[in-house]
Amino acid sequence: MKKYYFYLLAFVFFSSCSSFLDVEPRTSISGDQVINDETSAKAALNGVYAALRNYYSINYQSIAYLSGDNIEWTGSQSQIQEFINHKVNAENATLASAWNGIYKSIDRANNVIRDLTNYDKQNMSDVVKQNILGQAYAIRALNYFDLVRVWGGVPIVTVPTAKIGENMGIARSSSDQVYARVLEDLNTAEGLLSNTTDRTAFTKKTVLALKARYYLYRQDWQQAIQYANRLLSDQDYELLNPYYSFFKNDLTETKESIFELFYSANEPNPHRAQWQPQTNGGTRQWAPNAVLVKLLTTAETGGARSELIAKDNQGRWYGNLYYRDPAKDPTYIIRIAEILLIRAEASTQLGNFTQAVTDLNRIRTRAALAVRPSSSDKEQILQWIADERRLEFAFEAHRWFDLVRTDRAKQVLGIQEDFRLLLPIPYSQLLADPVLKQNPGYSR
Amino acid sequence: MKKIKHAKHILFCILFAMAFVPVDLFAQIAGEPIINATLQGKIVDSISGEPLEGVTVQLEAVTHSVKTDEKGNFHFVTGQKLPFTLALSYVGYERRKLVVNASPVLIKLQRSSDSLDEVVVVGYTTVGKKNLIGSVEKLGLKEVSSIPTGSFDAQLQGKVAGVQVSSSTGVPGEALNIRLRGATSINANNNPLYVIDGVFVNSESLQTLNTGGKATSPIADLNPSDIEYVEVLKDAEATALYGSRGANGVILITTKRGKNGQSTKIDVNLYAGRAKAAKLWELTTGPEHAELVNEYNRNIGKPEPFVSTAQGGRGLPSEQQTYDRLSEAFRSAGIYNADISLYGGSDKTTYYLGAGYNKQESILRPLAFDRASFRFNLDQKINDRLKVGASNAISRTGRNQGRAGDGPQGGILQAALHTPTYLSPYNEQGELVGRAGFDNLTLLLDNYDVGSISLRYIGNIYGEYQISPSLKFRSTFSVDYNHYDEHEYWNKFLIAGSPSGSATSAISQATTWINEQTLTYRKRLGTQHSFGLLLGNTLQSSTFSLTSATGKGFASNDFKIIGSAANTTSFQDWDKYNLASFFGRIDYGFADKYLIDFSLRADGSSKFNKGYQWGYFPALGLAWRLNKENFLQDISFINDLKIRSSYGITGNQSGINSFASRQLWSGVNGAYRGVAGMFPEQLADEKLTWEQTSQFNIGLDAALFNNRLSFAFNYYDKQTKDGLLTAVLPGTTGYDNYLNNAAEISNRGIEFTLNSTNIQQNNWTWTTAFNIARNVNTIKHLSKPMNFGSRDLILFKEGSPMYSFWVYKQLYVDSQTGDAVYEDVNGDGKITTDDRQLLGSIWPDFFGGITNNFSYKNWDLSTFLSFSVGNEIYNHNRFFGEAGGARDAARVIFRSNLDRWQQPGDITDVPRTDGINNNNYKDGGGRWLEDGSYLRFRSLSLGYNLPAAALEKLSLTKLRVYVQATNLFTWTKYTGLDPESAAGSSANEQGIDLGTPPQPRSFQLGVNLTL
Questions:
Q1: Of all helices (H) and strands (E), which one includes residue B119?
Q2: Which runs of E-coded beta strand occur in B809-920?
Q3: DSSP-assigned letter for residue B494
Q4: Is A80 exposed, middle or buried (0-12, 13-18, 19+ CB in 10 A)?
Q5: Radius of gyration over alpha carbons of chain A, in Å?
Q6: How far apart are CA B782 and CA B915, in angstroms?
Q7: What is the reported pTM?
Q8: Do A47 and B834 touch (CB under 8 A)?
Q9: Cross-chain residue pair B685–A89, CB shorter than 8 Å
């Protein structure tokens, strides 16, 4: 009798085994077809924003900040110091993280683009669909723009990775091809998005601002001015006075801002801890260097921008653009001041010096600085604009790209070799995907 | 409440009843009606004279036997006449036959010097050690309690051949890396499986707070005093029945139980002691530091910062003060232990009740560990066939924690060690300030508030039914439940709490339940054939959940509860996996001479997809007992000689994510603009399956000269294939990596264990136990090299061992220029990353330990040394401390930096200072890779046992008073504090020594008392 019980028991165990080994995850969901209504589509789009915000939180900014001549690194990791020394190795970990972070954003955008382009359910209106789709295209445009200005040509991926084996083995496109991709995505986004104002998400206006920047980088001065004008004539954007009113007093989404990344107490900005000193709960690993401190604290050059820095209890200067507790500070991506300086620079290039100096002086007046005299010396005005951009965007990710874009990086930063103006493709990527070729000049 | 009272009442009654069960009940009278003679006697230990309880006394030609009572007395009434021939047997003692002519009689029993009579638990059954086929080592309580550590497993180093325990630090109760016969996996778990009284327990820390590297050890929840013995299962024959996770070996822990027919005994153990660091880092003084910084600036053509204040400098070097922070951070730490146990049994019931409290301060302030634990083990025979029982242990482990390792915020050693000595803890306003980006040490120590409380229940109930004399069915239900409550509160004086305080509370719960059935059949056919069969199954389910909350912005330092914070965020996590297993084993022995067994276990894991879930793990074992052969019968000095061999396969799936084989979308923590977000998180290899390790073992066991010398020799060859490996995906896919079965790893080694009774006389004994082992680890297949650790210091590469150091080899310092000259491996005239090479690993050439026990009359003395030869350590502290002033005020400078090159002609290996990551102070510089070999005098204890006469007066069974010292001396060339402490935050980052407090030197005084 006992034996039969045992057999029965054994039978029960064996037969229940297959379901016993079925455990479903709770913190994640498996399978495809996850975008199936408006809520899930918006959630997927927020996933793209999260990826964009992620690479802008520290890694990409590190490259831009430290490769310029405003910021010094006080941490112990010498791989970050490499940016300041302009001897970046292919093994650099920050570079690899930024590369991976940007392509993550691209893949997430590709998921949204594929799923909404082929969307055949009737439970979402075209307006909503186009709005989400447009934002995904716009973010992807910014992603490729960020790639091309650091590395030059990169692999172009426009479909999501569905399984292992896909989206690898894609050779690098040329830098022009990548820029073409950026423009195409911007155009698509422009066509899909509506002309509303939203300072923490992409609208048609954000796309226009990106286009102004795009054409400045592409040295298409006419187009740069044209797109700049469309924003400068918009009542929703204005230069706030004094200089620090766009960030002081815990304000966010001020009229100065065209696009900033949203942060809140629940979504704190890791940027802050990099800048703030230990007494404020930060690490002050990014710190204004002596030259910048001098420029900012000297009334003739700093003006109202001296508010960008402060001193800690050991008498050390620290950057104070990102200062809130909890770290709700937005990360500033495009401000109207940039658009004004884009027009000033493009106008200079086209010989419209009066317009250029007028625009420049609006920025200077706002910063409580003496106006520049009118001039017809193109190089002089370009230098003025460059100097202005250096301080106006002291803690925003422009300086390195500006120096490279205007071909002055070697002279200003004392870089010996041309090839260092493009950073190396991360070595881990060369190993992971042998089809990738390193930028010339780098040993591996 | 009423219920509890009721339960207490019953418990009390049970205990009361047991304590007074008459002894005579056990000493049963032989069923012989005619009384011809009575025989009375007493049996004592031949050396100590202690009475032996429970010795089986059998009269030749009579089937009935009696057992001695607690005073060692026995009493026989029999129909036979004097003289009698008596057969005596007692576990741990030599069997003895003798002729008795008169009554009463005093008989001395000799302790057996070998352990051949011991019974060993292997794979759900027990076998006599002499018939053992697998490679198993057994340790008693004494061997795992000689050093005060949080968890008993820290003491296996040097005690068991082939077990490597690394990263023991001065923080009690911290996780260890234990490697048994090498390491088999890159991305799955490499720690052995822990089984306590049949419960597969969790050995992975539930810690979620970042303490800068190492986490807490869940094994520290177990009170070592409750341990009866520990077995270490090493080869495939022994571990294959544990199927999954058997690949890394199994550590079986059997806790104490009462014995049938044993009168109630009470054991009390008390000890107290102090611990102190044997050595601390040697730092430059303020003036020396300033001088080096000036020298660095001169070298690179910059102005010197340490010039007079009048010139705008920081003051001349000679004007600098020296502030000692290390002696503020380290202390003489207290160690306290008290435990009590009560045990015994009737013929139907056995019980063990134990309670203990242990408190250990770390030598590094303010870290501390304490554990309160209770255990209740009970076995009850319901009738001749049915037996039920339970094991229960509840413990509460409290810890004051802190960042003893890496991490700028809240890092104790960062604040104490890495802050330059010339910097005052005060600023000009007289306020305490942090320097060099680290916390102010005084503020930090005064305001530290990080800790955890682990509540742990480990227990099982079983029922055993003897279906027939040779067939037994057993079913158990086991639970391992761990409630782990952590908190950290950083007030506004500390960096992590600036500007207005920050608090986190996290509660994790890990539950594993296991249900297990076994059916065992054992039969002897005639005198020659013995046959055994085992069938069984287990179901295991493990669930993990975590809920945590963080609050920032407190009204003042007095508010600490997250509910009072201005901003709160929360987090939740959940995980679960199930395992189903079926196993069987068949064994056959011929004449106790030729032994063979075969086992097979099938494991199904929910971690893998259908079609890849099941792994099959067979093992075959053979043994030949040569001493049973006729040709050896005449050689009297050979007591036992056995050749054994096994081959088998074990699996591994632990340590990997429960859903690693699935494509997943996850929610974005924090989303964007307060609206939920999701993203594709994971690409998966749908064919993901078990990592498999096959192991071949051949060994020889011998016992010679009346069992006074015994040794065991093992050779093993472990090959791991389908190794679970995180494979890198090109970034263009949008993913970093995925898990697949790709690595192949080989471990080959030899082990030798020797036990010897050097002197055995009435008053004198001296025994020696020695073991030595060598393991050669090689990565057989790895398509791309993988880096781990800070500055990529560790590289895993095909053809080299795991945990190899990847550095530039410094050849010498050019005596003319003062520059370090590195080996230019590719000969391109430049020193680039391509010139980094693998120079050594954490694997020693050989390692082991030697224990000597002496006893003279009532005195006992024990010494234990362990050693490791040929392993390397990266002294990462020196990397920071020998930047020669280039790190200026950001880091301390070590005294060793004073040996730097200063002028042409200087011969030294410390180069001229030229700045961080320039030629001389490179990331990955080989100068800081050191020989980690050591010989350590790990423990010394001296005890005195009160003589029997005195014991009788005091009505005690045993009283031993002892003093003990640990880590008295360490002979090593390693310049850091402790060659065993090196560890990073992940399992693959071993051997990097950064800011770890050393294992202390400690002294204790203790008492063992038995009532």
A1: strand B119-122
A2: 810-813, 820-822, 836-841, 846-856, 859-869, 872-875
A3: S
A4: buried
A5: 25
A6: 36
A7: 0.84
A8: no
A9: no
Side-chain-side CA neighbours of residue A101 (13 Å)? 21
Q: Where are the alpha helices (DSSP H) in B579-704?
A: 630-633
CA dist., res. B67 & res. B30, Å (int):
11
Residue B48 has pLDDT above 70, yes or no: no
Q: How far is Cα B785 from Cα B988, in angstroms, rounded to an integer?
A: 13
- Name the residue type at position B261: G
Tell me whether residue A271 is exposed, middle or buried, using C-beta atoms within 10 angstroms of its C-beta: 0 to 12, 13 to 18, 19 or more.
buried
DSSP per-residue string spanning B889-931 = TSS--BGGGGGB--STT---SBPPP--BTSTTB-TTBGGGEEE
Give dist(CA B299, CA B911) in Å, integer: 12
CB B161 within 8 A of CB B249: no
Side-chain half-sphere CA neighbours of A120 within 13 A = 2
| DSSP state letters, B632-660 | HHT-TTEEEEEEEEEEEEEEE-TTS-TTT
Tokens of residue B931, six digits:
């020989």
Q: How far is CA B884 from CA A80, A331, B326, B408, B436, in A?
A: 20, 38, 20, 21, 16
Q: How far is CA B46 from CA A267, A269, B50, B639, in A?
A: 74, 75, 8, 21
Scan residues 49-68 of A and list those with Cβ closer than 8 Å to B. 49-51, 53
pLDDT in tens, B373-402: 999 999 999 998 999 999 999 999 999 988
In 3D space, the residue among B290, B296, B294 whose CA is nearest the CA of residue B886 turns out to be B296
| Of the partner residues A23, A75, A81, the one whose CB lies closest to the CB of residue B606 | A23
Judged by CB atoms within 8 Å, which residues 380-439 of B form the interface with A? 408-409, 427, 429, 431, 433-435, 437-439
Q: What is the pLDDT of residues A372-390, one digit of tens each?
A: 999 999 999 999 999 999 9
Element (DSSP H or E) covering residue B415: helix B412-417
Instruction: State residue A11's pLDDT score.
Output: 52
Tokens 């997250």 found at:
B562
In one-letter notation, the amino acid at residue B1003 is F
Average pLDDT taken over every residue of chain A: 90
B144 φ, ψ to 5°?
Answer: -110, 15
> What was the pLDDT predicted at B17?
38
Neighboring chain B residues of A427 at a CB cutoff of 8 Å: 833
| Cβ(B424)–Cβ(B321) below 8 Å | yes
In this prediction, residue B114 has a pLDDT band, given cuts at 50, 70 and 90, of: very low
CA A383, A386, A390, A392 torsion-angle sign: positive
* Percentage of chain A exceeding pLDDT 70: 95
State the CB neighbour count (10 A cutoff) for residue B820: 26
| CA neighbor of A95 nearest in space, from A153, A137, A146 | A146
Q: Is B38 exposed, middle or buried (0-12, 13-18, 19+ CB in 10 A)?
A: exposed
The answer to whether residues A369 and A309 touch, using CB atoms and an 8 Å cutoff, is no
Rounded CA separation B383/B367 (Å): 52
User: How many angstroms separate the CA atoms of B347 and B384, rounded?
Assistant: 11
- Taking contacts as CB-CB distances below 8 angstroms, the residues of chain A near B668 are 46-47, 50
pLDDT of amino acid B63: 66
Cβ-based neighbour number of residue B652 at 10 Å:
27
Distance from the Cα of residue B990 to its chain's centroid: 16
| DSSP H or E stretch at residue B5 | helix B2-19
Which among A26, A108, A168 is the nearest to B730, CB-wise?
A168
CB contact, 8 Å: B829 with chain A? no
Among B264, B192, B212, residue whose Cα is nearest residue B439: B212
Residue pointed to by tokens 């989400």: A132
**From its phi and psi, is residue B121 left (phi > 0), alpha (psi between -120 and 50) or beta?**
beta
